[in-house]
Specification:
five-stranded antiparallel beta sheet, 5 strands, 12% helix, globular
């Protein structure tokens, strides 16, 4: 099974970050600092402008991205993550706007 989302429309504002998920955390609606997000860390961290280099998150409303993150983590897939520098959910932590994954051969 291949899980791929192309990024032919991505611009320089959305840089790719590449690696396996090393940590994942789910914040509920009552979690004060940043509710309703799923945070991840990836191998090598993130490199996107002024975004935090360690942690990024998907908002709960983007459930399809969360599903792909979970599948990728369970399967040990390498993912590409695109951060939106204009959308921050906590301090300098940016929101993930696109995730793609594919099996390594």
């Amino acid at each position: 099974m291949v899980l791929v989302a192309g990024c032919g429309l991505c611009t320089e504002a959305f840089a790719a970050n590449h690696g396996r998920i090393t940590a994942i955390a789910f914040a509920g609606a009552a979690f004060g600092p940043h509710p309703d997000v799923v945070q991840i860390k990836i191998e090598g961290g993130f490199s996107q402008g002024t975004c935090d280099a360690t942690i990024a998150a998907v908002r709960k409303r983007d459930g399809h991205l969360i599903s792909l993150l979970l599948a990728a983590q369970l399967a040990g897939l390498v993912i590409d993550v695109y951060l939106d520098e204009s959308d921050r959910y906590y301090a300098d932590r940016c929101v993930i706007s696109l995730v793609s994954a594919e099996p390594q051969t």
